[in-house]
Amino acid sequence: TFVITAPCCNDASCAAVCPVNCIHPTPDEPEFATADMLYIDPDSCVDCGLCLVACPVSAIVPEHQLVERDRRFLEVSVDYYRDHRVDGPAAFTDDLIPLPPDHQMRVAIVG
Ligand code: F3S
What we know:
This protein is α+β, with helices and mostly antiparallel strands and 111 residues long. The protein has five helices and four strands; from the N terminus they run E-H-E-E-H-E-H-H-H.
């Protein structure tokens, strides 16, 4: 699988290119309030790598290249999909979290 790590800017460029729609946002729930980012479902990812190319902040890493301090993000992703099973492609757009203005600016500059 590929893993989204700390620099995640939550702009969803990765989700737009994923062929199996396995990238989903932080749920709008209190326990996730301080962690707005996107998560790759390790069981659904087909390792195409398109998300890595699309990410404007280089936050996505193949699992085998994770450095020690970032291994926790794989655990976070596993926990996310265990606790928040996402059903079908509509789930992403329905749940998309609005971006803060600074994130939109960063995407505009990079893209
Ligand atoms: Fe999707 Fe990225 Fe995996 S585009 S299939 S999450 S490598």
